[in-house]
Write a structure and sequence with these properties.
- The protein is mainly alpha-helical.
- Helix content is 45%, strand content 0%.
Length: 97
């Protein structure tokens, strides 16, 4: 059994003295110390910014088309001649087992 002082609770931890005075300064320090974003991160932020300027219907359609392009790229089906159109059938994909 641990011997606690008469107030019957464990001692409180001491608060550390931090080099910044407020939570805002802590957040700014954290943000400035994060690594520099790469090209994909910057492009992702650009796309997000453009999507925020659209109405909900346009956002959903844009996200669907972007997802289709990314899917075709991951499957190796994306070329300079790739076009997305209303009459385009879904791409034929060979699944390797």
């Amino acid at each position: 059994m641990t011997n606690f002082p008469q107030n019957n609770h464990p001692p409180f931890k001491r608060r550390r003295n931090l080099p910044y005075k407020s939570e805002d300064q802590w957040y700014l320090k954290k943000e400035t110390s994060s690594p520099t974003p790469d090209g994909q991160e910057v492009f992702g932020r650009y796309v997000a910014s453009k999507l925020r300027q659209m109405d909900k219907s346009s956002q959903m359609l844009s996200e669907r088309l972007i997802s289709e392009v990314l899917f075709r790229g991951q499957m190796g089906l994306l070329t300079r001649n790739t076009c997305l159109g209303e009459d385009d059938p879904p791409p034929t994909v060979k699944v390797e087992e």
